[in-house]
Amino acid sequence: MQKIISKNVNFFYGETQALNDISLSMKEKTITALIGPSGCGKSTYLRLLNRMNDLIDNTKMTGSVLIDGNDIYAKETNVDELRKNVGMVFQKPNPFPKSIYENVAYGLRVNGINDKKTIEERVINTIKQVALWDEVKDKLSKSAFELSGGQQQRLCIARALAIQPSILLMDEPTSALDPISTSKVEELLFELKENYTIVIVTHNMQQAGRVSDNTAFFYMGELIEYDKTKTIFTKPFKKQTEDYITGRFG
Fold first, then answer.
1. Cα 42 to Cα 215: distance, rounded to the nearest angstrom
2. DSSP state of 246
C-alpha cells in the first residue's frame, strides 16, 4: 500500500522556487532515502510531509501530499494530529534539558496522556526499542545531556516513537555521529522498518545504499530519478544520477 503520495508539488520560499513539480509515492513499511547535493530541495521536501515548512514565513506550496489517502494540506487537517502521526528526528541530537526519562515522557504528557503506568510502560518500551535500555536503565533520572552524542540521538528517536507515529522522518540523523554510533542507528532502522514507514535525508551514499529500499535523487529542486535503491546505485537510468553517485559532481 502506498503510504505517502505527493503529486505535482511545487514549493516556494518567497519568489524562489525550491521544489519543482515533485511526484513521488512511498510504500508502507519501507525506507526511502532522499539524496542529492546541498540545497537541492531534499530537506524541504522532507519537511513538507509533516508541514514543518508552515512555520517559515512567506512560503507557498502547490500540488498535493496524501498520507493514508488524506490530503494533509486540506483545510480541515489537524496539524497537531498530523505531527503525532509523522515523527521527526533532526540532524543534531536535540534532547530537552530534562532527565532521560522525562525526555521520552514529555511528548506523551503534551498529547494528554497522564496515566502514570501508561507513561512508564511507553517510556521503557521505546527506550528498549531503540536499543538504549541496557545503557541507561540505571540513570533514567540523570540529565539527557550526560549521554554521548550517539545515545542522545537514539533517545531523540525514542522520544519521536513514544507518541506512536506511523511515519518517521529523519533529516541526516547520523551526520553528527561517530562511525560506531552511526552503525547502531542504521541497525535500528532495519528493526523500525517492520512497524514504520521511514524517509531519510542523507549525504552519505554508502548509508543510502545500506539502509534504504528506494532512493530518490534530487537536483536543483527537481526529482531526477526515483527507483529501487539497488537500481539507482548499479544501473541508474539518467546520466546525471550516475555522475552524482560516482562522485563526478556534487
1. 11
2. T
Number of separate domains in the chain = 1
Stretch 179-198: mean pLDDT: 93
Mean per-residue pLDDT, 33-49: 96
Residue 250 lies in a domain: no
- The DSSP result for 66-101, as a single string, is EETTEETTSTT--HHHHHHHEEEE-SS----SSBHH
The model's pTM is 0.94
- Give the residue-averaged pLDDT of 43-48: 97
Q: Give residue 208's domain range.
A: 2-245
Residue 250, pLDDT > 90, answer no
Sign of CA dihedral 192, 196, 200, 204: positive
CATH, residue 209: 3.40.50.300
**Which residue's entry shows cell 512511498?**
26
